[in-house]
């Protein structure tokens, strides 16, 4: 594996190997006072974020440092991007400076793919940390890892994804990955928040959340991405919450074993009630923990896996 750009088309064997590696890394680090492995010593990982991020950026930085890589953070505001430098020139500069892997988040869909093409000659790996409304593959992998941990398997499970599917790269990546791993995926959203062509995705579409919850093994609430909305997609926050928010009453409709997920940041009271987010059914904190180990596994397979196999 040279890059991780999307879950659409990602080989099931590769995805499973990453998840298995993440499990082993988590077990290896369990109980250690010093969480440090020498695996990527001498490697340089650069995070390049053109959009705000807490969970993704921090977990990639921790993942790299726990594997002894040198991690450098670059933001658009503190780099030559602020002076008008193009994405291509910035990427080539970082590769020339010695980057073994560039982790990029960008508001334009397809940016990570373009970056991988520009850096092909340099031999630098690229990880897509979110590109526009396109994909966020490591988020889908950590969600799958969390579901495997909570439900023992993804295969045969019903996962309901609720909310702003139109603007969600998380939803798109999860649909492709979870369905490939054998899950039944159901998208629940108002018609205005579903993308064109969604019927061709490997998922079913519903507008009735209450009807889907009693048979769900997991429900994933999506953030309403107001910053990407230009116009009215629903009457009001209150109206949205009434029809598509996960409150305590709806939590009671779920089977006892069901897991509640959210990629964050959460809009408490609109998408999800605080008591639901903090309930025993919630695995939101576990998603963050598993994100570190999944991203460690991704960096391992990009930068060290083939060498160790040899």
From TrEMBL:
Alphabetic keyword roster: Pyrimidine biosynthesis, Transferase
One BP annotation, GO: amino acid metabolic process
GO cellular component: cytosol
Residue span, Aspartate/ornithine carbamoyltransferase Asp/Orn-binding domain: 155-302
Binding site for carbamoyl phosphate: 55-56, 105, 136, 139, 264-265
Catalytic activity: carbamoyl phosphate + L-aspartate = N-carbamoyl-L-aspartate + phosphate + H(+)
Pathway named in the protein's UniProt entry: Pyrimidine metabolism; UMP biosynthesis via de novo pathway; (S)-dihydroorotate from bicarbonate: step 2/3
PROSITE patterns (alphabetical): CARBAMOYLTRANSFERASE (PS00097)
Xref: SUPFAM superfamilies: Aspartate/ornithine carbamoyltransferase (SSF53671)
InterPro entries recorded: Asp/Orn_carbamoyltranf_P-bd, Asp/Orn_carbamoylTrfase, Asp/Orn_carbamoylTrfase_sf, Asp_carbamoyltransf, Asp_carbamoyltransf_Asp/Orn-bd
Origin: domain of life: Bacteria
UniProt cross-references to Pfam families, sorted A to Z: OTCace, OTCace_N
Residues that hold L-aspartate according to the record: 83, 169, 223
UniProt similarity note: Belongs to the aspartate/ornithine carbamoyltransferase superfamily. ATCase family.
Function recorded in the entry: Catalyzes the condensation of carbamoyl phosphate and aspartate to form carbamoyl aspartate and inorganic phosphate, the committed step in the de novo pyrimidine nucleotide biosynthesis pathway.
Official protein name in the record: Aspartate carbamoyltransferase
């Amino acid at each position: 594996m040279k890059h991780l750009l999307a879950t659409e088309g990602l080989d099931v064997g590769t995805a499973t190997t990453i998840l298995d590696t993440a499990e082993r890394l988590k077990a290896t680090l369990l109980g250690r006072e010093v969480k440090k492995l020498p695996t990527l010593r001498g490697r340089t990982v650069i995070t390049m974020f053109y959009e705000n991020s807490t969970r993704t950026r921090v977990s990639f930085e921790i993942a790299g440092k726990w594997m002894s890589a040198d991690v450098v953070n670059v933001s658009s505001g503190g780099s030559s991007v602020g002076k008008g430098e193009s994405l291509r020139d910035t990427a080539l500069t970082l590769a020339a400076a010695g980057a073994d892997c560039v982790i990029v988040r960008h508001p334009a869909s397809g940016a990570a793919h373009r970056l991988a093409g520009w850096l092909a000659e340099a031999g630098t790996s690229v990880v897509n940390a979110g590109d526009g409304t396109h994909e966020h593959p490591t988020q889908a992998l950590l969600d799958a890892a969390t579901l495997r941990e909570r439900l023992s398997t993804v295969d045969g499970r019903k996962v309901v994804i609720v909310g702003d599917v139109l603007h969600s790269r998380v939803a798109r990546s999860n649909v492709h990955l979870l369905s490939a791993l054998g899950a039944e995926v159901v998208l629940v959203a108002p018609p205005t928040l579903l993308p064109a062509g969604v019927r061709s995705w490997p998922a079913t579409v519903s507008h009735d959340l209450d009807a889907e919850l009693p048979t769900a093994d997991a429900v994933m609430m999506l953030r309403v991405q107001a910053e990407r909305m230009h116009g009215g997609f629903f009457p009001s926050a209150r109206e949205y919450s009434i029809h598509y928010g996960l409150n305590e009453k709806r939590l009671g409709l779920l089977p006892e074993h069901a897991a509640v997920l959210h990629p964050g940041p959460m809009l408490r009271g609109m998408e999800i009630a605080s008591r639901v987010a903090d309930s025993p059914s919630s695995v939101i904190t576990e998603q963050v923990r598993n994100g570190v180990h999944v991203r460690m596994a991704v960096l391992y397979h990009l930068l060290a896996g083939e060498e160790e196999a040899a």
